[in-house]
Design brief:
Length: 180
């Protein structure tokens, strides 16, 4: 009885992992967690808690390498990372972007998601370098603007585990709808 009680959980975990990840692996990502999160977040007022919920849900539900939330800090007049998934706190705690950085200005003007690899070729090499630098700082290949009452409040920054698993247009659209 003692042996069974000690070994059951690890064996159960391995069997579930085997069936879920090896036999029934799917390239389709489950967005139902995002739908539930969107309804739940309407009652959350603390922005750190809100950012933690967003990055953890995106990171775990979509199996991302990195997810972070960049929020405007009016006291310092700068955009800073509020929470991150997949990065050590020492990497993101002091990460800040100037409100006049190329990425922030682009998000403010276009009010649309930025998929680094898709838009990089539409800029001059100077602008492309600035955009790449901002995306590298954020550890993101996809940046979703957070807009509230027609103001850019920040962004949700996402990086898939591999570049081969880039986001589909439908996924990016659902992320953008979530951020509104």
């Amino acid at each position: 009885v003692l042996l069974v009680s000690l070994v059951y959980k690890p064996i159960d975990y391995l069997v579930v992992l085997f069936f879920k990840d090896l036999l029934f692996r799917s390239n389709h990502r489950d967005h139902s967690a995002l739908n539930h999160l969107g309804r739940f977040l309407t009652g959350v007022l603390d922005r750190t808690e809100l950012a933690n919920l967003i990055v953890n849900t995106f990171g775990e539900a979509l199996h991302l390498q990195v997810a972070s939330v960049l929020i405007y800090d009016p006291s310092k007049e700068i955009y800073r990372i509020e929470s991150a998934y997949g990065l050590k706190p020492g990497v993101w705690r002091h990460l800040e972007l100037n409100p006049h950085s190329f990425l922030i200005e682009f998000l403010r003007v276009h009010r649309a998601p930025v998929e680094r690899e898709k838009v990089i070729h539409s800029f001059s090499w100077q602008e492309a370098n600035q955009l790449l630098h901002d995306c590298e700082q954020l550890h993101a290949s996809c940046v979703i603007p957070l807009i509230f009452e027609d103001e850019l409040m920040g962004s949700i920054n996402l990086m898939p585990k591999t570049t081969a698993k880039a986001f589909t247009p439908l996924e990016v659209k659902s992320f953008f709808e979530f951020a509104q």
